[in-house]
Design brief:
heterodimer; A: alpha+beta; 51% helix; B: alpha/beta; eight-stranded mixed beta sheet; 12 strands
């Protein structure tokens, strides 16, 4: 088919091929996102709150920061299985003492962990178990971290324990425990971590025969995943991935519907003329003076922020009238001999409009359609940035808004803003490059000899 | 005889094959409204055309030939000022039909049209075969396959290779496109085919080919042609009757044999004298002056200002005078 042949002309434009590559990438991303995190799961992960993400560090940078020499720590999770039982000693009254040793490597020189928490679960009837914690650094120092009473289940925020902070010389434990001793003495200077093998020794005392204890220690790092995490410990990669299908679905449905509508309604107006044309044209002018963004802001403020409602409003707004450009084209086309001929052989008005007039200009609408897609994606992002994004869906605009509201740029979490911004930019440029090349192929006015 | 068994095609002799004329036009006027005034493109034209006859309508550019054809087909632009008169086709007055009825019952079922610049008259986004078949599908509800079969038949009749039917218009030469349009005009087996300058944009060989096809078609399918042209030589190939228009008026309507030998109206005579003949020593003639403006046409005989034979009487509008040996002419000279 000739349309396909003309689409293949895209190969002549390197920029268009780059754009096609971007589009393919977005499609693959979308497929991956939808398969990897099905819609409901993605919503849960994004909206369920901090408890889902307890094992993630807060505001962590992407892991690939370390490729550029940052050498920031990753998260270390010491699960019960990783512990080695050194000794078990029976106590009077059915209780026992168990000494468990956790060993782990801390090879990173570029920073301290963000925080340390110990999650515990204990079963007992009357007397809760207790744990004595000792810390051993690679250079052999042993630090007593104190005793904790383990009531039922909960979280011991080791790095926020005031007693421990005091004992460590008013320094946050997650730094003091990993600091080089020489520099630790020299307070005031920049502290640097001491890489090597650390040990955590837990002396667990239970006082009842059936009493059990499970400990999980998490030493939160400063890097996580390929996209980092946000202030709620959420993995930004999920939102980046899910942003692609949402952006494409949003942009495509708006662009496709409106392009076809503009073609159709302008063709009908131009073909029938008279009051129909006047009506369509006046409506077009009405739309041109109706401000879309304030309307959307008002709807977002007072009614609903659902992305799909916003899409419906954008489409409804577009349905007011047609396009001046298409109308001009159709008015010119009305005098073409093949339309006269169609009229002569008795083709009905609608047959002429839909089989003769519209298909003839469909190729011209293709570049316009492709170029319109990113404009709607940007519109969604702008609304999100204004705080009017969909409250449920993870979108690129929402990430930027979160980052903005947390002052990401002031605190230096550049990745938080730059990654979604890059996605938006690459999408926009990709579609624009394809669109411009298509314009050169399909629009006779741009054809050069 | 061509195939007439196509079930959905109603018999063309529905109103009885009368001895009456197929087409009778009486007092037809078609005026257009323009910014400069009212253009009297067709003014009081009357003629009749018998079954299976072909009529050539001759005249200079802008004399109302095409407007006359469009008036018969009711293919009118929006700026129509007056559209008045009688057009009786096969006993039915077309002027009394409403537009929708006319579109469904007359266009292509009874009258088909090969438009001017027919080369560009094909839809660029449909395959030629579909387009040829389309009138059958649209008007008569013939099934697609059957319509295609018929399209292939028609393609054979007009000399269009059948494998061209799968192509798009831009893949065809001008002559082939013209053939496709003629095939399309034939497919519904109409009573009357109006050909508006069917050969004007083609080279002479193709012109000859097309004319031969048209002649063959005329023999095989009793069609009636109205051939609009300014090419007198080409028209002589096909025409049984000749109608000459000048400034919106019919000035002469004569049988072809007589007309090509001895045209009667001074304008027709001049027109004939302007045709080059092969190897003749004849000095080509032209008519001094311009055709008159149709907004303010001259009173009386419209040709009078350019006529070498004018006399006092020409200040009054002449009626149509019957001629010896058939035909009419709108000239006071005929009154003597």
């Amino acid at each position: 088919m000739t349309l396909w042949m003309r689409l293949k002309e895209l190969r002549r434009y390197p920029s268009a091929m780059a754009g096609v590559f971007v589009m393919l990438l977005l499609v693959l991303m979308s497929i991956y996102a939808v398969v990897r995190y099905p819609y409901s799961q993605a919503i849960t992960l994004w909206r369920a709150g901090e408890m889902v993400w307890l094992e993630n560090p807060r505001n962590a940078a992407p892991k690939w920061f370390n490729w550029f020499g940052a050498d920031l720590p990753e998260t270390i999770i010491l699960t019960p299985e990783k512990g080695r039982v050194l000794a078990t000693e029976a106590l009077g009254g059915g209780g026992k003492r168990q000494t468990v040793l956790y060993t782990f490597d801390y090879p990173w020189k570029g920073g301290f962990p963000r925080e340390i928490s110990i999650f515990f679960e204990s079963t007992y009837v009357r007397t809760p178990p207790q744990v004595l914690l000792f810390w051993r650094t690679p250079d052999g120092r042993e630090i007593n971290l104190g005793t904790q009473v383990l009531r039922r289940s909960g979280r011991y925020l080791l790095s926020a324990d005031p007693a421990l902070i005091k004992r460590l010389g008013d320094r946050p434990p997650h730094e003091a425990l990993f600091a080089r001793p020489a520099l630790a003495a020299n307070a005031g200077g920049p502290e640097r971590p001491l890489p090597g093998r650390y040990e955590l020794i837990c002396d667990i005392f239970t006082f009842e025969p059936e009493s059990e204890v499970k400990l999980k220690t998490i030493i939160y790092g400063q890097v996580h995943g390929w996209a980092g995490t946000d202030h709620l410990r959420r993995d930004i990669s999920i939102a980046l991935l899910w942003g692609a299908p949402i952006a494409i679905a949003f942009g495509m449905s708006a662009a496709l519907t409106l392009t076809l509508w503009y073609l159709t309604i302008s063709a009908l107006g131009a073909w029938f003329g008279g009051w129909i044309d006047a009506l369509v044209d006046r409506l077009t002018e009405l739309r041109m003076i109706l401000p879309l963004l304030p309307i959307l802001i008002m709807i977002g403020m007072f009614f609903s922020r659902s992305l799909w409602l916003i899409l419906a409003v954008i489409i409804a707004y577009g349905l007011i009238g047609g396009s001046k450009g298409y109308r001009a084209m159709f008015l010119q086309a009305r005098a073409l001999p093949y339309l006269e001929a169609a009229r002569a052989y008795g083709a009905g008005n609608f047959r002429i409009v839909f089989r003769y007039l519209v298909p003839r200009f469909l190729p011209l609408a293709i570049p316009a359609f492709v170029q319109a897609i990113p404009s709607y994606v940007f519109l969604e992002a702008s609304l999100a940035l204004l705080g009017l994004g969909d409250p449920l869906l993870p979108t690129w605009g929402k990430i930027i808004q979160d980052a903005y509201s947390q002052g990401a740029l002031f605190v230096g979490y550049y990745y938080w803003i730059l990654l979604p911004a890059a996605m938006l930019l690459v999408t926009g440029v990709g579609f624009a490059m394809v669109g411009m090349a298509l314009d050169r192929i399909f629009n006779p006015k741009l054809r050069t000899l | 005889m061509a195939d007439r068994s196509l079930t959905n095609l109603e018999s063309r002799v529905g109103t009885g094959f009368s001895t009456d004329a197929l087409l009778r036009v009486e007092g037809l006027r078609l005026y257009f409204r323009t910014t400069k005034g009212v253009v009297q493109a067709v003014d009081d034209v009357s003629f009749s055309l018998g079954w299976r006859r072909s009529l050539a309508i001759l005249g200079e550019s802008g004399c109302g030939k095409t407007s006359l054809a469009r008036a018969i087909l009711r293919l009118l632009p929006r700026n129509v000022h007056t559209f008045f008169g009688k057009i009786i086709l096969d006993g039915v007055d077309l002027m009394k039909m409403n537009d929708e009825w006319f579109r469904k019952e007359i266009r292509w079922r009874k009258i088909s049209f090969v438009p001017q610049a027919a080369m560009n008259a094909l839809n660029p986004v449909l395959r030629v075969g579909y387009q040829i078949a389309e009138p059958l599908i649209v008007h008569l509800g013939v099934r697609r396959e059957e319509a295609y079969k018929r399209a292939e038949e028609m393609a054979r009749v007009v000399g269009l290779p059948v494998d061209f039917l799968n192509r798009y218009a831009f893949e065809l030469s001008g002559g082939m496109r013209q053939r496709a349009i003629i095939a399309m005009a034939l497919i519904t087996n109409p009573l009357l085919i109006i050909l508006d300058e069917p050969t004007s944009a083609l080279d002479v060989l193709t012109q000859a080919n097309i004319m031969n096809s048209l002649k063959k078609i005329k023999r095989e399918f009793d069609v009636t042609y109205i051939l609009i042209t300014h090419d007198i030589a080409t028209s002589s190939e096909l025409a049984d009757e000749v109608l000459v228009m000048y400034a919106g008026h019919l000035v002469e309507h004569s049988p072809a044999e007589r007309f090509y030998r001895t045209p009667m109206h001074p304008y027709a005579q001049k027109l004939m004298a302007s045709v080059p003949t092969l190897r003749g020593d004849k000095q080509l003639e032209f008519i001094p002056g311009q055709p008159p403006s149709l907004i303010n046409p001259p009173k009386g005989c419209r040709f009078a200002p350019r006529c070498s034979k004018r006399f006092d009487k020409c200040a009054e509008e002449p009626p149509l005078f019957s001629l010896d040996g058939g035909g009419v002419a709108k000239c006071w000279l005929m009154a003597r």
